[in-house]
Write a structure and sequence with these properties.
- The longest helix has 23 residues.
- This protein has two domains: 74 residues, K homology (KH) domain (GMP Synthetase, Chain A, domain 3); 70 residues, Ribosomal Protein S8, Chain: A, domain 1 (2-Layer Sandwich), CATH 3.30.1370.
- It has six helices and six strands; from the N terminus they run H-E-E-H-H-E-H-E-H-E-E-H.
- It is elongated.
- A hairpin with a 4-residue loop joins strand 1 and strand 2.
- The chain is α+β, with helices and mostly antiparallel strands.
- The strands form two sheets. A three-stranded mixed sheet has the order 1-2-3. A three-stranded antiparallel sheet has the order 4-6-5, with helices on one face.
Length: 154
């Protein structure tokens, strides 16, 4: 089996969907990101990012079926939409963490996707005062920001 050329794969997938792209760039690092620039972004992103979530799911399933689960660890972002959404999630979590610190009390976030939860867990991984835990089931799964009293944690 040939190794996966992610750029070619996404180019072909979007071509089959009759989507016009200006550029496709693969960025590796902490997470593999496929950055797509397209004038067709409204079609690709959809209302509230619904099409983009579906595109990511289908693309990862196709890659997983042919190249294994490890190769399917990537994310497609169109015109920076996904990253701007994740920054909104981070900003909201930071604000609620301030509330947890101020009132020294646990704060529950709204239900969110697995990826959004991962982003929030990573955001507070090194925080000495806030611990994150996932709670709930299915579409109601969310994060609880737990205040850690520094004196008790020592």
């Amino acid at each position: 089996m040939l190794p996966l050329d992610l750029k070619s794969f996404i180019t072909e997938l979007l071509s089959l969907l009759d989507v016009v792209t200006d550029s496709i760039e693969v960025k590796t690092g902490h997470r593999t990101l496929v950055v797509v620039a397209s004038s067709d972004s409204a079609r690709l992103i959809g209302q509230g990012g619904e099409h983009l979530r579906s595109l990511n799911m289908v693309a990862r399933r196709l890659v997983e079926a042919k190249h294994g689960e490890e190769a399917a660890n990537f994310l497609i972002d169109v015109n920076g939409y996904h990253e701007s959404q994740m920054e909104k999630v981070r900003a909201g979590a930071r604000m609620l963490a301030q509330r947890a610190r101020l009132f020294k009390h646990d704060v529950e976030l709204e239900p969110m996707s697995a990826y959004e939860r991962l982003v929030v867990h990573e955001l507070f991984a090194e925080d000495p005062e806030i611990k994150t835990e996932s709670a709930g089931e299915g579409k109601f799964r969310h994060i609880v920001l737990k205040y850690k009293d520094s004196a008790l944690a020592s």
